[in-house]
Amino acid sequence: MLDMIKRFIYHYNNMRWARGRHETYLCFVVKRRIGPDTLSFDFGHLRNRTGCHVELLFLRYLGALCPGLWGYGETKLTYSITWFCSWSPCADCSSKLAQFLRQTPNLRLRIFVSRLYFCDREDGLEREGLRMLKRAGVCPVMDWRPVQGVPPHIMPNDS
């Protein structure tokens, strides 16, 4: 278990030049309100795969993670999702996420990132992508400290 936590922290460590940290790790917590006093929780982690960024991989699994997100009959359930990411989304993923979130008003997304992905240029596409996410309602936070609040059982393993 300690190796898994060390591996995640290695990739999540906030540093300007993240040499050797080419993978994006995403730990997530999914909350659903069941009743006025009841919440349901789910959690897990993903890592990018060849040809698929982790943000889009998450969207592929969203239907299984959030049953009722698109509604059963007339009822749509409301979900709140928190991501802990080692890198901020690229411009393309930001655009796709923003479009998805505009079409899914019953989903709230908060993203904690450790490092910004190619955001050095003020007029760069990645910065505009992050602005699109903010306009779509995402609550972005760049901070390394939330990793201390991530339960160890959702830390990535070596798979």
Automatic annotation (TrEMBL):
<keyword id="KW-0378">Hydrolase</keyword>
<dbReference type="GO" id="GO:0008270">
    <property type="term" value="F:zinc ion binding"/>
</dbReference>
<dbReference type="GO" id="GO:0005634">
    <property type="term" value="C:nucleus"/>
</dbReference>
<dbReference type="GO" id="GO:0005737">
    <property type="term" value="C:cytoplasm"/>
</dbReference>
<dbReference type="InterPro" id="IPR016193">
    <property type="entry name" value="Cytidine_deaminase-like"/>
</dbReference>
<keyword id="KW-0479">Metal-binding</keyword>
<dbReference type="Pfam" id="PF18778">
    <property type="entry name" value="NAD1"/>
</dbReference>
<feature type="domain" description="CMP/dCMP-type deaminase">
    <location>
        <begin position="1"/>
        <end position="133"/>
    </location>
</feature>
<dbReference type="InterPro" id="IPR050610">
    <property type="entry name" value="APOBEC_Cyt_Deaminase"/>
</dbReference>
<dbReference type="GO" id="GO:0004126">
    <property type="term" value="F:cytidine deaminase activity"/>
</dbReference>
<dbReference type="GO" id="GO:0016554">
    <property type="term" value="P:cytidine to uridine editing"/>
</dbReference>
<dbReference type="InterPro" id="IPR016192">
    <property type="entry name" value="APOBEC/CMP_deaminase_Zn-bd"/>
</dbReference>
<dbReference type="GO" id="GO:0003723">
    <property type="term" value="F:RNA binding"/>
</dbReference>
<dbReference type="InterPro" id="IPR002125">
    <property type="entry name" value="CMP_dCMP_dom"/>
</dbReference>
<protein>
    <recommendedName>
        <fullName>CMP/dCMP-type deaminase domain-containing protein</fullName>
    </recommendedName>
</protein>
<comment type="similarity">
    <text>Belongs to the cytidine and deoxycytidylate deaminase family.</text>
</comment>
<keyword id="KW-0862">Zinc</keyword>
